[in-house]
Design brief:
The protein is α+β, with helices and mostly antiparallel strands. Helix content is 33%, strand content 32%. Strand 3 and strand 4 form a beta hairpin.
Length: 126
């Protein structure tokens, strides 16, 4: 998926040098193809659960743009679902990974945030 938009405000460029930060979140997007291949679509370290959810929403918009309208509608509804985002933030605060999964029949898109201690390259701290 090719995108030309900047990430949500407050999220640092993935190339920025940064020591691992406890309480940070690794967010990533992947497409699982029906033939078993996995295509990684990008990742980002976020410093708060709110930023993590903003990043997932931003990437969900990219996924929705690639889907037929009838498949994109539930994704766009999820993007606007404030109650679900608050539930997800609570889950992240408790240290539980949150994943939003979108299926189009032949591809399963997984957008996830994982709590932990990560540096700007998504490497986990010891």
């Amino acid at each position: 998926m090719v995108v030309d938009q900047a990430p949500p405000q407050g999220i640092r460029d993935r190339q920025s040098p940064q020591a691992p930060v406890r309480g940070s979140f690794w967010c990533d997007a992947a497409a699982h193809l029906c033939d078993g291949r996995l295509l990684w679509m990008g990742g980002q370290v976020c410093w708060t659960p709110e930023q993590a959810m903003a990043w997932i929403g931003w990437r969900a918009g990219h996924v929705a743009d690639q889907l037929d309208d009838y498949l994109a509608r539930p994704v766009r509804a999820w993007i606007q679902d404030h109650a679900e985002h608050q539930r997800a933030i609570g889950q992240l605060v408790r240290g539980i990974t949150y994943a939003f999964v979108v299926c189009d029949g032949s591809v399963q898109f997984v957008l996830a945030a994982t709590p932990g201690a990560f540096d700007s390259d998504g490497e986990s701290a010891p």
